Amino acid sequence: MVRTFTVILLFSCVRFAAAQTVESFTEPYRKLDIVPVEPGLLRMLAVREGDRVELDQRLGTLDCEVQEIALEIARQNMEARGQLASAVAERDLRRTRLERLQELRGSGHATQDEVDRAVADLRVSEANVQSAVEKQKTDELEFRRIAAMIDRRILKSPLDGVVTRLYKEEADYVGASVSPVMTIMQLDPLRITFSIPNTAGQSLRPGQSVALILPESEQNAVGQIEFVSPVSEAESGTMRVKVLLKNPQGKYRCGVRCVIDLDVKPTT
């Protein structure tokens, strides 16, 4: 009888202990496939697998020779001042002529018809100046439009991370929105998603520090709870808990086993 009670007590202790340690795997904080907005040939690839990249760093460029030629044409049009200068000179000349005719009209040496014609000529010349100004604005917008088209063909990093895989090489054709060029992962911090038994997870709160163990590398670490699900899984009797593990120097590997030990008070 005593032996049976001992076995039951030992089994209960094992179940309780198991409830306090849960295993999962380290994952990247973010994982993104870099896909170009437009299709084209990959003219230049600036990174290799394993390279660390920063936000907005250039990763590669699609061929944009046609757009670059169009951009240079738009630049020339935008910077051209001949048409506007000619229109301004014509307007000033018409204005001066009108002023002189008005003076002559006052002394009786010009007719009203000449003055009216000079007024009409001045209005036409002012309209020509306005048209030249509007054309310059349109040329500037066209320049900016083509520059934006070229910028869309430049692959840039959307985050600080590591290039973990390349799918394309230089001179390969890349289709828009369907063919990734590379995968970038943010590995600082790492994220671990645990399924914690309800009885053990009731006291967990976001921001709380927890003890972590990485068995494969025999490393101990301290994580911080990012999220505690307000909903439990009825079938398993568990709740999802997301933990972040700071990894500024790449000390911890992504994709390896990680154990949370709720019985241990973490120390920094």
Offer a quick outline of the entry.
By secondary structure, the chain is α+β, with helices and mostly antiparallel strands.
Shape: elongated
Kindly provide the radius of gyration, computed on alpha-carbon positions and rounded to a whole number of angstroms. 36 Å
Give the averaged pLDDT, no decimals.
88
Order of helices and strands: HEEEEHHHEEEEHEEEE
Give the strand order of the largest sheet, numbering strands 1, 2, ... along the chain.
Answer: 1-8-11-10-9-12
Largest sheet descriptor: 6 strands, antiparallel, barrel
- Residue windows where pLDDT falls under 50 for at least 5 positions: 1-19
Structure description:
The chain has a 6-stranded antiparallel beta barrel. A 4-stranded antiparallel sheet has the order 5-4-2-7. The chain starts with a helix and ends in a 7-residue tail after the last strand. The protein has helices at 2-20, 65-79, 82-107, 112-152, 198-201, and strands spanning 21-34, 40-45, 52-53, 58-62, 154-156, 161-166, 173-174, 182-197, 209-214, 219-233, 238-245, 257-261. It is 39% helix and 33% strand. The chain contains 5 helices and 12 strands. α2 packs antiparallel against α4 (112-152) and α3 (82-107) packs antiparallel against α4 (112-152). It is an alpha+beta fold.
